[in-house]
Amino acid sequence: MQPFRTLTSLAVPLDAVNVDTDQIIPKQFLKRIERTGYGEFLFFDWRMNPDRTPNPDFVLNKPQYRGAHILIAGRNFGCGSSREHAAWALTDYGFRCVIAPAFADIFYSNAGKNGVLLITLPDAKVAELLQRATQPDYKLTVSLESQTVADAQGFQERFTIDEFRRMCLLEGLDDIGLAMRHTAALDRFEQRHDAEFWTMPRSKEQRA
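RE: above sequence
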């Protein structure tokens, strides 16, 4: 997992509440067995017209937001089903940070385990950022090290985050990475377990 420390990027305003995981990545695209390839289907039903041509009114299709890595959204982002594919779609598209007043709990966990920093700010602050992000070339700087969100026009707000989640993001550790930090201890356990297993008394049937 790519470590997250400081990110300066264009910010996309998605002024919508209760954005559920079926909108983030619609169910018809959940057939892949890899974590990659979901980015092109992010917000597919909003990004595309029925004839699969880009919807020019949807914010991600506007040229001024091309290449953005920060998404600003309304309250309860990531509600709905528990599909981890929603986090995969965001990261595959290029988003590394989402700012909203509140997130669904399971989505919050899935996003953190896939390297996406979710920042919770008060409703009024998010509303201010949503408005500011309509300006051309608007950029935010997010620092996980100092736990701040700031722009060049004077906006600055501090956010809180669970210390364990912060450590994992800073060091780029997903669940596998966390386990691999204990490789030596796991190897010792397996060696001890194997030695004890093969020296245990066994019945004639077990020996066969």
